[in-house]
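Limitations
The structure tokens in this dataset are predictions for the assembled complex, not deposited experimental models. Users should treat interface geometry with appropriate caution, especially where small molecules or nucleic acid strands are included. An illustrative entry is reproduced here so readers can see what is and is not provided.
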Amino acid sequence: MTVTTVETREAPAGASRHPAAPSRRRFWSASRRDQLAGYLFITPQLIGVVLFVLVPVGLAVWYSLNDWNIFSGRLEVVGGDNYADLLTDPQLPSVLLATVVFSGGIVVLNIALGLGLAVMLNRRFRGVTFFRTLFFSPVVVSVVAWTLVWGFLLQDNGGINGALSVIGIDGPNWLQSGDTAMIAVIVSQVVRSVGINMVLFLSALQGVPSELHEAARIDGAGSAAIFFRITLPLISPTVLLTAIITIVGALQAFAQIAVLTGGGPGLSTTVLVYYVFQQAFEFNNIGYGSTLALMLLTFVMLLTLLQWQLRKKWVFYED
Amino acid sequence: MKTDLVSHRQRRAGHVLRRVILIVALSVLAIPFVVPTVWMIASSLKPLNEIFQSPPTIFTDSPTLAAYAEAFTFQPFARQYFNSVYIAVVVTLVTMLVASLAGYAFARIPFRGRNVLFFVVLIGLLVPSEVTIVPLFQMFTQAGLVNTHWPLILVTALAAPCVLATFVMRQFFIALPGELEEAARLDGLGRVGIWWRISMPLAKPALSAVAILTFLASWNLYLEPTVYLTSPELFTLPQALTRYADAYGGEMWNTQLAAATMTVVPMLIVFIIAQKQFVEGLAHSGLKG
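Predicted assembly:
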């Protein structure tokens, strides 16, 4: 994803490296053999991508122009009907809203918390490794196990409300009302995955030359000014990339929703991926499900394009 | 002189105070990161009637392993555990091989159409698995591979997580100095020999990053097993964890938590032992800007 330049380091040098090859004039010259090795090396990966990514995307486009006929058990061409359904589906606006709230909430919270933790832990003190380990540890807990435990704690009579009642607060039934259920899925997901962003930010922060900080401090800049004027611009490529990775990841969050809320209550936490799954596998609407899946793909593609464009424009520094 | 000393002492006091505030803030922030795991382990040891006790207690006075026994009798849990482990191991090994070959070629071997083909492979990173799952399900149905582990192994080892691995390996090999390879080539080593004997031994940091990312990706799969697998003895762990429900559909919380504990604790132990590799692997995975 980060590859904007795919320049070859070897190609220009490669030609002059084998001066003997052309004079021999054998068909399997060294460079031809090398080319063949190159193709053979990438073959397994290329087959995988073609067979399990490109062909399925092509098929999804085909399915989106069809509908499953229950009586004949076959696909029937319906042209643009599924695309017209996108406009009339009464559930879709609420699904898209939930998707925006969920992905937006996750990206904002995840970047803010990840950056905050990285700044707090980017210094030497006793216990810093302990805290880093601690904040990273949920990353290795499987998504489903993590989500199950949160579901358990969020029950009406569960641990969170139990703890709240001790300090005299009567907690809500978290998973039974739309707003609190959305907050619950966002928070549980951010806590599980923020460790990854924290590590990426930490390694970016360690790349910021300390002389810059010292120079600014001697010039009388406060900590906040140093952070916003110097550190943040310098690590902006990482922040941007991390934000895009996080939002693309949030767009694909299926297990968290399926296990914690099942899309409910009502449609309040039915995000696009979950809706795709429901349409395709629960209601057997293969055609409409594929149309929705292509919409998801379009969103992901647009975000990736946006990242490439922004990278060119406002990112301050690139190595 | 004296004022200097005072201000120095004051600054030191301010320093200590700030440190204390920092540690208190970190400890408060740490609560949601730690409590769920602790609570999970503690609750899995409680008798059923204590699980939703109010006010809540973290540790029980009468710990029991009944829920752990039940986890194995209610479902073929040992078998499911084995499934998850062997699938993740196979996927990781295949990915390491496929990705290091492809990553090496894209970084090091000049061949015609390299940039175009690399771009084609990168598309594999962009397409969410939820987009391809419907057609893939149809393809695997046609091939008679539904309700087997083949879709989980093939797609994971050759598509999305593997493309990420190829990318990581390429970034690593591109940064590797070429002199060693030149020397080996002059000694008459072919491409395969150079790749295996010269470049791969140097690629250990990248390979361990790839291994960790791939293992976690396979270990966490939920959508795919839910779609492809219907027999409980073929289930993987994430899927199995959600099936602990009694005849009325009510959740068997303590059994579920015991099973979850058994899947989480080994991973946490491995993580704590190998955390340096985990964290550095991620940081060096080429995922940063």
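Some entries come with short summary sentences. For this one: Chain B has a mean pLDDT of 85.
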